[in-house]
Amino acid sequence: MTERITLLDEMGNKVEFQVLATFGLDDSEYAALLPVNDLKSSTYLLRIEYDDDGGIILVGIDNDEELKDVIEAYEEIQKERLQ
Fold first, then answer.
1. What sign does the dihedral 62-35-77-51 (CA atoms) show?
2. Tell me, what DSSP letter sits at residue 38?
3. Cβ contacts of residue 4 below 8 Å, gap of 6+?
4. Residues 55, 41: contact at Cβ < 8 Å?
5. DSSP letter at 68?
6. In which region does residue 10 sit, left (phi positive, over 0), alpha (psi from -120 to 50) or beta (all else)?
7. Residue 43 is part of which domain span?
8. pLDDT reported for residue 1
9. Residue 66: pLDDT band by 50, 70, 90 thresholds?
């Protein structure tokens, strides 16, 4: 997958990300993103939500249990890709 998106960081700077994967888990959708200019950075896992017009909103995961489940699901996807 070579899809890229641009998001704003905490300082309002544009940061380009490569979309590594999108996947569903427990009736929610998630995206795994990697900064294009910092490939040694950690992968960002964000929940995909939708605004009233159907536009995508990427939201950080604050719930520790949800984050744990999302990390496990993403790691399983990575293992499957390597097989």
1. positive
2. -
3. 16, 17, 18, 19, 36
4. no
5. H
6. alpha
7. 4-82
8. 47
9. very high
> How many domains in the chain?
1
Contact predicate 79/73, CB 8 Å: no
Upper half-sphere CA count for residue 8 (Cβ side, 13 Å): 4
- Provide the token pair at 29: 């959708």
Radius of gyration of the chain (CA): 13
Tokens representing 22 are: 């999108």
How much helix, strand and coil, in percent to the nearest 5, is found in the chain? 25, 45, 35
Q: What is the dihedral of CA 72, 64, 14, 49, to 10 degrees?
A: 80
Please tell me the pTM assigned to this model.
0.84
